[in-house]
From TrEMBL:
GO terms for molecular function: ABC-type oligopeptide transporter activity. PANTHER family: ATP-BINDING CASSETTE SUB-FAMILY B MEMBER 10, MITOCHONDRIAL, ATP-DEPENDENT PERMEASE MDL1, MITOCHONDRIAL. This is ABC transporter ATP-binding protein. It comes from Candidatus Nephthysia bennettiae. Gene3D superfamilies: P-loop containing nucleotide triphosphate hydrolases.
Length: 92
């Protein structure tokens, strides 16, 4: 089965519902999921990271985060909250 950005235009709740419905199908066959949203592939057995048409990284989510490469950078951009500036903060 090949899914190409199957949940890209869905909100987070709808994406989770679709992923839950597809999970049993993934268990019984080879599936390729093409996605920019990393939440779509976090539980994949193997993630391939392609940059400018070239395979640059491969592994599980944990392996790719530990490698500290492009995947980790993208993961942090998508999942780590931005820090709010403290400009104008007054304490007594």
């Amino acid at each position: 089965m090949i899914l190409d950005e199957a949940t890209s235009s869905l909100d987070t709740v709808s994406e989770q519902l679709v992923q839950a419905a597809l999970r049993p199908l993934f268990a019984s066959r080879t599936s390729f999921v093409i996605a920019h949203r990393l939440s779509t592939v976090l539980a994949a057995d193997r993630i391939l990271v392609i940059d400018r048409g070239r395979l640059v990284e491969a592994g599980t989510h944990d392996e790719l985060v530990d490698q500290g490469g492009l995947y980790k950078t993208l993961y942090e951009r998508q999942f780590k909250p931005e820090r709010s500036p403290t400009v104008g903060l007054v304490t007594a």
